[in-house]
Design brief:
The chain has 58 residues and is an all-alpha fold. 88% of the residues lie in helices and 0% in strands. It is rod-shaped and about 70 Å long.
């Protein structure tokens, strides 16, 4: 009785935990390139973006 309920709670908790870790991992992997670009190539990236958005003025 009690052991079965405890096992069920632990199983669902692990599922939520793995799901959260999986989601956080994806978010981090997606954000790392953007953070690197902003830290190291901010002026170049902004210049390229402006040139791409307004090719007629270049």
């Amino acid at each position: 009785g009690a052991s079965g309920a405890t096992h069920f709670i632990r199983a669902t908790t692990n599922d939520y935990l793995y799901g959260a870790l999986f989601g956080v991992t994806i978010v981090v992997l997606l954000l790392i390139p953007q953070v690197k670009e902003r830290l190291f190539h901010a002026p170049v990236a902004s210049a390229q973006t402006q040139a791409a958005l307004r090719p007629s003025t270049v």
